[in-house]
């Protein structure tokens, strides 16, 4: 049977910084997977990976509770990048230019695959790190860009950031005349999580480990089963490991019965099929032992306790700063595996392992203190809003989460509006070019503020005055220093 005449256009983007080793590991593994499969992906990064490998060591991909991990990248390989570094215009321009360029080259039946390894903020935006600093790419901007693709195109969009579930609506928004599937590492309002290995380190994301395994083991699996297997693998983790629920949303119900090769068609598969439902029995002898053993192991493996061996006693530290770092990790617990918290947790482990010096230790302590400052600022700000009768005393976090589930679109719109208030962005990211801090994403203070305002919008809609609330927030943040 002749190979498919259709073409695939693939973009894989690493949007993290020099301490985002887990995201970078996912980026390398997905890129190498697609290159080995002959998809010839465009690989784009805002950061030189050599800066990461020199600091954190070689990249190890996989879950050691499911099988052996493999070293996939180190400093010697990083000396000759396989990816393109974003230029002075930044990552955002290059991403949108890539989509615009592809839209002039694709034809009916062609495939467009876009995968983002990024941090995310509530409000449908991901964070892009590059030499120009911090940028934001929103769901609306991606939707607008994909709408430039002609009819008859097949699009797979993957976002593994925290709060990525809100991007699932892109499937319906761009699916008119196109087959679109959106996969996200987390559901609406959820953080996404990295896997914590037996050594207590964060090697890759839970989603990427399952996603790569699925594409490798079941390259022609039906989309509904593709999603189920990824979800189940992410669900089966040790009690010490937090997880999240991925989403897969197609633009039409009929796509559930299609094979994943409808969107990710590698040349070797293309020679065997011509865009028809595949006969999985042709692969059954090869895959049977792997899938059965994997399912058994996922359900019956003995649970290890990653990180139990790390020192919990701050007095064992060489000084007070090291003791604070130990205490910070203990306080985070399993939440440290969250994508947005993992950067600072990784930096802490680098200090504990002796891989970085005193300067990095000082920066970590400063960043922990900066986070505390943002939380104190928001607590003071919320109290001010209550005192001025602009909001009611906020509900507890669980109650706020339940309210958000009732109308997440409304909360998401409010989160975007709050994010654009002058001074709010600076609560989520420390000053970019300030060497006193680690380049992290911190969404706790921002999320607390959004929760407080959103509860008022839902519970007292007649008295809700977003204009006055915005003005009060902006005035407070202007006179309250962020650092």
Automatic annotation (TrEMBL):
Superkingdom of origin: Eukaryota
Organism, as annotated: Penicillium rubens (strain ATCC 28089 / DSM 1075 / NRRL 1951 / Wisconsin 54-1255) (Penicillium chrysogenum)
Protein name, per record: Uncharacterized protein
Molecular function terms, GO-annotated: peptidase activity
Keywords of the record: Signal
InterPro entries: Peptidase_C13
A Pfam entry, by short name: Peptidase_C13
Family: Belongs to the peptidase C13 family.
Span of the signal peptide: 1-24
Keyword Transmembrane helix among UniProt keywords: no
One GO BP annotation of this record: proteolysis
